[in-house]
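Bench log, entry 3. Co-assembly request; chain sequences pasted below exactly as received.
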Amino acid sequence: MTNFLIRRFVQGLLVLFVSSILVFLLLYLAPGGPLSQTIVEKRQNARFPIKQEDIDRLMKQYDLDLPLWQSYTRWAFGWPNLPDRPIRYGVIRGDFGTSWRIAPNEQTMKVILRVLPNTLKLTISSVLLSLIVGVSVGIYSAVHQYSKMDYTITAATFFGTAMPVFWLGTMMILLFSFKFKEWGLPYLPPGSVNGARDYIVPVLGTIQANSLSDQFLRLIMPTITLSLLFMAGWSRYTRSSMLEVLRQDYIRTARAKGLREKLVIYRHALRNALIPLVTIVTLNLPFIFGGAVITETIFNWHGMGLVFINSLFQSDWPVAMTYILILSALTVASNLLADVLYTLVDPRIRVS
Amino acid sequence: MAVAELNQEVLNTNETSQIQVIWERFRKHHLAIIGLCVLAILFFFSFIGTSLSRYSPETQWVGEMYGSPTLAFPFGTDELGRDVMTRMMWAGRVSLVLSLFVTICTVVIGIITGSLAGYFGGWTDTLIMRTVDVLLTLPTLPLLLILSAMTLRGGFPLQSPEFLNQFFAWIWGMSPDATGNVMVLVGILIVFGWMGLARLVRGQVLSLRNMEYAEAARSLGASSWHIIIRHMIPNSLAPIIVAATFSFGEVIVLEAALSFLGFGVQPPAASWGSLLNNVRDYMLIQPWRAFVPGMAIFLASISYNFIGDALRDALDPRLKL
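Structure output for the full assembly:
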């Protein structure tokens, strides 16, 4: 067991190492080199045209003039230390490099972590919503298999998985923010984490900017948009897992003992049915973070995803690379966590 | 006598072919039939519609900007006075054909790599599957975004073959330059899209390679290639077809998501996703222009999903994907 986990851990580290090389190579994919965008823009500046020595200085500042392998080892491990160059600590010691454009010369990790609370707020509420809705809907359709409601739920999950989230978000803003406001119904504020000024919502009255109710109203639409896909997936999963468990002998035993149906379902069936769900939820966590890129863009939600998109628009590659590395690390970590949880939660599983 | 009667009966029943059996089972899924019809309509709209339309997607009707839906312009006109419906048709060609092409390529790559890994095992397997592992660790959407952001801005050193460019330029009615840009996106989607299929095919081949018929073929002196091509791949075709059908829908949505965020199909080319991106500034005055392309993406995606689900039941009832 411990051996298995250690092996998985080492494998995960190896995968991360290789993906860090790939992510670093991305930097050199841009036609004309990583700085091309910056140089083109500076060339267009008629008053202060960029000179070759300026380009050389920038190249040196960002370690772009070194041979590729040295540039990589300095970025990843902070080795070798070269004279007349700043000391690098390397990704391995938490130095992800500095931002080029978004927040010049600031640590990229700092730029991203600054907005982490907003992303966490969105992702945690999405996970909770998907779990609550997904699991309860899944239980219902498993217990009432082949009922009309079961078919309706199945169709609804198809809608959920096929729905392009960017379109859903846009339509929700159009309907719940603008049309509802036009019609005099209680509407939802269309974007941002916090409001800038107070506003009046019919029925609810005046909402103070940045108050708890303001934050809650602003959280509703992004959360629904982000969680729809996972709601659908997890409810399908709960349903099939529940159906599997309900066929087991111990459920028949529980029923034969004369236990109330509620007790059978919640005490005996559900507990066992949720075991595989734990793994799926853990494995899906990185996808929720990745999916937040779209949701945050639509709702102007100032989180990691939006910072990433902005870094792409401004060719701030170090920030973009850091974001991808964080998500890769999250993927590896969640795979490992899923392995651990699976063996912890399910005593039947013994890994040799 | 009884035996003779029975024989007569057996002889009189028509033999049903495999295809017929599959079709009979497929037909029972009403949603899949609806999905087939919807897809047929979408393809008809995009391919035949362009010849029926009176307008070209680039013609600007001066004085007709921001037009509401009328008989002459069923979906209105855009900010430059172009007919939105005609633009929807041409954009549909890009979305639909792109997803078809990308999926076919990923399926071919997935079959080749997956069957090599599964059949030969050893270091071939390790090499291919570890590559898959690493690629799957990188987050799909952000990775595709950064790749397009880097390559789409100023041409890409690797160009797709000329005949492909010309072929797609002809289908999409675009200039070769615009097609070249879209082909970069196609390339990125292919390079990062084959891993799931490779895993699927490898699993299939692993379970099939020790079957009796594979053993028999081997003992008759068949080469590995012969066994892979004649036995392994045809026998794992059912799950591959199902996965490919789901993939059509996924690629349509993925491409639309990239284009919506501004890193997919670039103007002057347009796909349903990029139409949705363009309309963001005019959404409040022309809400239907945001509704229509999104609805097309949604309909295409859900139709492929319904068809894939029905195919899964029809091709192999035991199959669980």
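The domain at 2-314 of chain B is CATH 1.10.3720.10 (MetI-like fold). DSSP finds 15 helices and no strands in chain B.
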